[in-house]
Amino acid sequence: MPFSTDVQARGIQLLLSGMMTRVHEELRFTDVPKRTEGLQVPTSAGPVNCTVYRPPASTATPAPVYVNFHGGGFVVRRPEQDDHMCRSIAATAGCVVINVDYDVAPQRPYPAPLTQAYDVCAWVADNGTAGGWDGSRLAVGGHSAGANLTAGVCRMARDRGTFTPRLQIIDSAPLDQAADPSTKLSPIAKPLLNPHLIRIFTAAYVPDPAERADPLVSPALADDLAGLPPALVITAEHDRLRDEGDAYAKALEAAGVTVTHRVFTGVDHYFTHTGPVPEAKEAIELMASTLRTALSA
Ligand code: D8F
């Protein structure tokens, strides 16, 4: 990758790391108790740390399991930014939540983060007895960059036949990394994302432009979506990534996949973290209720 692109990505990494832990206060301080433990999963791209959130003791054991991938443009490494969602999902969806601290670009470009994401899910599916969850009832989900990884993990799981997620949560996902970012439009004047930022994220994660059309990088460009897991697709009206999310939901549906697609109006990219609070809460509740149904025995 050109030197300047690498430097820009590292700059963004430093600048956004602080900003991205600043989840909206009212979302952050829930009265849901936090019951977590650390876990290290071996993967073919190196060991990956995870945080395990347990459901209330009243939950039937073993509980099903949801593997979560945070966002941050593939460059920001802040899994704790999803703490509010992981807590409320563990508390209300009756599942164990495993939040994954995957490696980020530009230090670890594609495919390392996706390899780690996939290997963690395969490990979770295989190690329920020791971990105290039911690995046969597994869901995968993510937010923004983490939703892109989720779509990739689901493709890999389908193609390798290793494990079968019962649900994929695709929240505010970048799904077309080959498109010119300046063609990704928002109806508001100053959306959170701008083409320059999208360009930096994409160049950091996939330095080789030829690789950006790979369906594991750009799931929206795949023409073979049949057989993917049931999906919850969340998009936001003001998000520059809304159109590719909506298109992916439609394409999944056309391929025969069961899709719940919800467009949240009046909100921008990452509203599940930054608010407004009512819409963020509604989206998190939708994730939890969809997980609860999909993972029920
Ligand atoms: C970043 C929000 C904060 C979280 C500014 C996030 C994106 C991720 C946006 C892409 C990836 C765009 N992209 O946002 O992860 O096009 O690769």
List keywords for this structure.
18% strand, single chain, 8 strands, 297 residues, 8-stranded mixed β-sheet, 39% helix, Rossmann fold, 10 helices, globular, binds (4-nitrophenyl) hexanoate
Short description:
The protein is globular, with a radius of gyration of 18 Å.
Describe this structure in words.
- There is one protein chain.
- The protein is of the alpha/beta class and 297 residues long.
- The chain has one domain (5-296): Rossmann fold, CATH 3.40.50.1820.
- 39% of the residues lie in helices and 18% in strands.
- It has an 8-stranded mixed beta sheet, sandwiched between helices.
- Helix 1 (3-21) crosses helix 7, helix 3 packs across helix 10 (277-295) and helix 4 (112-126) packs across helix 6 (145-160).
- The protein is globular and about 50 Å long.
- The model has no long low-confidence stretch (mean pLDDT 94).
- The protein binds (4-nitrophenyl) hexanoate.
- Residues 16, 71-73, 144-145, 174, 177, 192-193, 198, 201-202, 270 line the site of (4-nitrophenyl) hexanoate (D8F).
